[in-house]
TrEMBL record:
The chain crosses the membrane at residues 24-44, 51-73, 148-171, 183-204. InterPro entries: ABC_transp_perm/SBD, MetI-like, MetI-like_sf. Keywords: Membrane, Transmembrane, Transmembrane helix, Transport. This is Osmoprotectant transport system permease protein. CDD domains: TM_PBP2. Belongs to the binding-protein-dependent transport system permease family. It is a multi-pass membrane protein. It is found in: Cell membrane; Membrane. It holds the Pfam family BPD_transp_1. Gene3D superfamilies: MetI-like (1.10.3720.10). Residues 18-201 form the ABC transmembrane type-1 domain.
């Protein structure tokens, strides 16, 4: 059986795994984005606090994904919980770092002008600083999503959802008829999902970032 015959015969299961993979990454990125932006907002005014936030989230990336998921299994069990926790932690660094950089890059004159007309601190943040910091934040989200697409495959080690299960089944049965097809199908599926997500982010950027800021 060649690769295309394998895909045609198992397309329903592959589509289900792809949906679960995309759903896990998307949901974890939503959580990582909210947490990352909140951390950035809380720390960008202080050099010390900003560096601590960046260093702390960067430290997570030094832990191998397989080791982190393995450490989480005794605490939260198998399946979705260790997958969600691990992916969210890994997605924080690019969002936190870019949120801090973006907020610090806002022209102080604009903030002073907003203060001068009586705008409150929350209003300045929501109406001026965060919109102007959105382009680098979106870039951080794009980078984090691409990272999580690959890391999510390792979640199969903890019985997590997604295309990693296809890859792991193929690796576990190397030498059998469809082992290589399974690994290839899972890998190509992740690549396609990553490209689709990135295209969606490009579209979001075009819709939410004014032309002057993009330039």
């Amino acid at each position: 059986m060649n690769f295309w015959e394998y895909v045609a015969g198992r397309h329903q299961q592959l589509l289900t795994d792809a949906y679960q993979h995309a759903s896990a990454v998307f949901q974890c990125m939503v959580v990582a984005t909210v947490l990352g932006v909140l951390i950035g907002v809380a720390t960008y005014r202080s050099e010390w606090a900003g560096n601590l936030a960046t260093t702390t989230t960067a430290t997570v990336l030094t832990v191998p994904a397989l080791a982190l998921i393995g450490l989480l299994i005794p605490v939260v069990g198998l399946g979705v919980p260790p997958t969600v926790i691990a992916l969210t932690l890994y997605g924080l660094l690019p969002v936190v770092r870019n949120a801090i950089v973006g907020l610090r890059g806002v022209d102080p004159a604009l903030v002073d002008a907003a203060t001068g007309i009586g705008m409150s601190r929350p209003a300045r943040l929501l109406r001026i600083e965060l919109p102007l910091a959105w382009p680098p934040i979106l870039t951080g989200i794009r980078v984090a999503t691409q990272m999580l697409m690959g890391i999510a495959a390792i979640a199969a080690y903890a019985s997590g959802p997604g295309l990693g299960n296809v890859i792991f089944r193929g690796l576990a049965s190397l030498g059998s008829a469809n082992a290589l097809n399974q690994v290839l199908a899972g890998t190509l599926g992740i690549i396609v999902l990553a490209l689709l997500f990135d295209a969606a982010y490009v579209l979001i950027g075009r819709l939410t970032i004014p032309g002057g800021i993009r330039a």
